[in-house]
């Protein structure tokens, strides 16, 4: 992830279009994780957003590319594809990697 991508991602995740899409999709799934059925927290992009597709609403705002997941399932998704989340870290509800501290 580059600094350019990080800036674009922050801008996207703060946009009215994303917030409206995210909230409507979350509500349509009754706030439940689509993988385990527990309380969901994150609207996850199945096709991950990157510098090449962040401006493509067919990827970023299409309900077919979204799923509600709990934090555990979201972290498992990123663990599986990223060779691991660094120890002591997790993804927050906005998809940001955060340090948990001790």
UniProtKB/TrEMBL annotation:
Keywords: Endonuclease, Hydrolase, Nuclease. One of its GO terms (cellular component) is cytosol. The keyword Transferase does not apply. The keyword Hydrolase applies. Pfam families: HNH. One of its GO terms (molecular function) is zinc ion binding. Belongs to the HNH nuclease family. Residues 33-79 form the HNH domain. It comes from the Bacteria. Signal peptide: none annotated. It comes from Ureibacillus xyleni. This is Putative HNH nuclease YajD.
């Amino acid at each position: 992830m580059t600094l350019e991508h990080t800036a674009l991602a922050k801008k996207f995740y703060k946009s009215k279009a994303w917030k409206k899409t995210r909230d409507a999709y979350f509500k349509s799934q009754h706030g439940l994780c689509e993988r385990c059925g527990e309380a969901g927290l994150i609207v996850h992009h199945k096709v991950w957003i990157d510098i090449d597709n962040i401006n493509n609403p067919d990827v970023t705002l299409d309900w077919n590319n979204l799923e509600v997941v709990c934090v555990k399932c979201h972290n498992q998704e990123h663990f599986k594809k990223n060779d691991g989340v660094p120890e002591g870290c997790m993804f927050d509800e906005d998809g940001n990697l955060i340090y948990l501290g001790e």
